[in-house]
Amino acid sequence: MFDLDRWQEIFETIRKNKLRTFLTSISVASGIFILVILLGFGQGMQNGIQKEFEADATNRIWVWSEVTTKEYKGLNPGRRIQFRNEDYNNLTSIYNKEIEYKSDLFRVFGVTINYKEEVVSYGIQGISPNYQQIENQKIVLGRYINYADLESKNKVIVISNKIKNELLKGVENPLEEYLQLSGINFKIIGVYTDEGGDREEDRVFIPISTAQNIFNGSNRIANLAFTLKPEKDFETALAVSKQFTEEIKQYLKQVHTVAPDDSAVNAFNVMEEAKRYYTLTSNIAFFFWFVGICTIIAGVVGVSNIMLIIVKERTREIGIRKALGAKPWSIIWMIMQESIFVTSVAGFAGLILSMALLEVVGPNIEVDYVLNPSVNFSMAITMVIVLIVAGALAGFFPAWKAATIQPIKALSHE
């Protein structure tokens, strides 16, 4: 039941101690403010890292070769290991059941791209059809390279949306146009976009069989790329991915006579990298929670101390109330109401300010690995409710002390 007299009394107490109440409120509000801002940036880091990994398939395995660093089976170090078509064909045959998407890759160097009077230099790569899924590319116009293009060694090319806008300005239908590579016409069959942004769109793609045939590639391959079939959970997928990575490295080392501990055959497992990043963000989030909660605890302790001071100042008044027949729980509730009121107002003030700041500033933050820092509103409300409960507990113990004071001692208190 609403007790107007009680609330007037609370406001009168606050009015008499404006500075003390203000400073206490600041400590509580700053606690919830700091916690929300820290959690917002923690979420922003998770968003940023997730965005980085969206650029490619999250279970991608990328294999490449380097120069041998150790003598092995009579062969000197310093040998350049070169992958061949048969390496790719054998691996895809051996691990056919495990592999989801696969592609070999041949890089074309020293070749410019001509379109009418324009001469530009972009990365030219020969690939297989599954490369679209491995790189998480989306076709916005036309189609991607297919297996018929590989079989027939078609002179076709897929360009990025960025290249279309820069090179084919004003062209209504780029699918009717041709680009020249070393004076050879390649028909544009598709336009793609990449989640990785502009840096991933500085490339054009042609069938790897065509690239090897025209640009003296013979049967050479620069890289191998795979993704594995989905597993029931991340940990299982990670374990399978690590095992697969080690097995193909050892297979290629054996085929090319490379020492088992030589780095001449290497691989990058995106899942292992993702695991490290997500573990890091989890640790950072835990640290943010720890700092924020400690700040809130400091504010709640401040409320408790203020309540103790209030009880000390109002000891004679409490004694008079008890002498007039006031119940212990009415004394407790009187003290707790003030504690809950101060904590609630300060907590919601800190919440509103922090959420407003994240809403205004968050979308405009441009920092590596931080994207749109934000906090779930229901979680924020839950934090404030927990804070109010903590404030109630902070007021309870001083209130209980007040309720147990003997009236005769309270009346004689100076």
TrEMBL record:
<feature type="domain" description="ABC3 transporter permease C-terminal">
    <location>
        <begin position="290"/>
        <end position="407"/>
    </location>
</feature>
<protein>
    <submittedName>
        <fullName>Putative ABC transport system permease protein</fullName>
    </submittedName>
</protein>
<dbReference type="GO" id="GO:0022857">
    <property type="term" value="F:transmembrane transporter activity"/>
</dbReference>
<keyword id="KW-0472">Membrane</keyword>
<keyword id="KW-1003">Cell membrane</keyword>
<dbReference type="InterPro" id="IPR003838">
    <property type="entry name" value="ABC3_permease_C"/>
</dbReference>
<dbReference type="Pfam" id="PF12704">
    <property type="entry name" value="MacB_PCD"/>
</dbReference>
<comment type="similarity">
    <text>Belongs to the ABC-4 integral membrane protein family.</text>
</comment>
<dbReference type="InterPro" id="IPR025857">
    <property type="entry name" value="MacB_PCD"/>
</dbReference>
<keyword id="KW-1133">Transmembrane helix</keyword>
<feature type="transmembrane region" description="Helical">
    <location>
        <begin position="377"/>
        <end position="400"/>
    </location>
</feature>
<dbReference type="InterPro" id="IPR050250">
    <property type="entry name" value="Macrolide_Exporter_MacB"/>
</dbReference>
<dbReference type="Pfam" id="PF02687">
    <property type="entry name" value="FtsX"/>
</dbReference>
<feature type="domain" description="MacB-like periplasmic core">
    <location>
        <begin position="21"/>
        <end position="238"/>
    </location>
</feature>
<feature type="transmembrane region" description="Helical">
    <location>
        <begin position="286"/>
        <end position="311"/>
    </location>
</feature>
<feature type="transmembrane region" description="Helical">
    <location>
        <begin position="331"/>
        <end position="357"/>
    </location>
</feature>
<keyword id="KW-0812">Transmembrane</keyword>
<dbReference type="GO" id="GO:0005886">
    <property type="term" value="C:plasma membrane"/>
</dbReference>
<feature type="transmembrane region" description="Helical">
    <location>
        <begin position="21"/>
        <end position="41"/>
    </location>
</feature>
